[in-house]
Amino acid sequence: AASDKIRNAYVGHIAKTFVLAGETDADATADAGKVMSLETVLASASLAPVQLRDPMASYPPMSLEQADAVTPLFPWKDFLSTVGLPQLTGLNIAHPDFFRAINKALSDVPVADWQAYLRWKLLDGASSAMNSAFVNEDFAFFGKTLTGVKEQPARWKRCVLATDRDLGEVLGQKYVERTFGQEGKERTLRMVNEIEREMARDIDSLTWMSDETKKQALAKLKAVANKIGYPEKWRDYANFKVVRGDAVGNQTRSAAFERRRNLAKIGQP
User: Fold this and answer.
1) Per residue in 161-187, pLDDT tens?
2) Torsion angle of alpha carbons 130, 132, 134, 140, nearest 10°?
3) Which residues of 220-231 are buried (b: 16+ CB within 10 A; e: fewer)?
4) What is the DSSP letter of 141?
5) How far apart are CA 243 and CA 250, in angstroms?
6) Are 114 and 38 in contact (CB under 8 A)?
7) pLDDT (tens digit, 9 = 90+) per residue, 101-132?
């Protein structure tokens, strides 16, 4: 009964968001139903939480040809080329049954329903950066109804969190300058190095450990990466354009920046 209540509230929230975006009440109600129907199809094909605990359940690496066989209606090569990865010859689609369900839905679900679903995903992702009507409606469901939070954080706190999320290392640089600095990092690193030297001496002095085991223990000690205070090289945000007065655009550009950063890791050590 509690889940039914939440699902009904969710559909109502989707409809209200569509109305805020300019749809009529009738169209918004119809589109919210389409979204819920499609999300139910996708959720039903997803692994249950217990299944997700098994890492191998999400690791079926395959060639592009094998991926195409799972989803004949989804052109993987075109998709990868569009996102800037035309060189890939294989991938891990994680949950093949989920993608089989998507393939079936691409055939069975009308295009208008997919369009409603994609409009909803766009609005849902942007609501927290839009005007107060969208922000309040977003919090009314995801804050109050779903998690029981009575009051959303002050606007300045939400702005700081958004800045930290999108420009974390720029914000971090300023924080480090005021609170820690180069001297703080060097002092802490000296202390850590002294601790490691003492640990190495302890290992050498152990009578119950063989020479070969000591060698392995020392190698393990030297392999510890000391991340003190802040990175040696700060992230470069030169390709991330921040525009005053364009919160949604900044959020969208941040997501694109982070996606490019992650995709650039493919094939790297």
Assistant:
1) 999 999 999 999 999 999 999 999 999
2) 140
3) eeeeeeeeebbe
4) I
5) 6
6) yes
7) 999 999 999 999 999 999 999 999 999 999 99
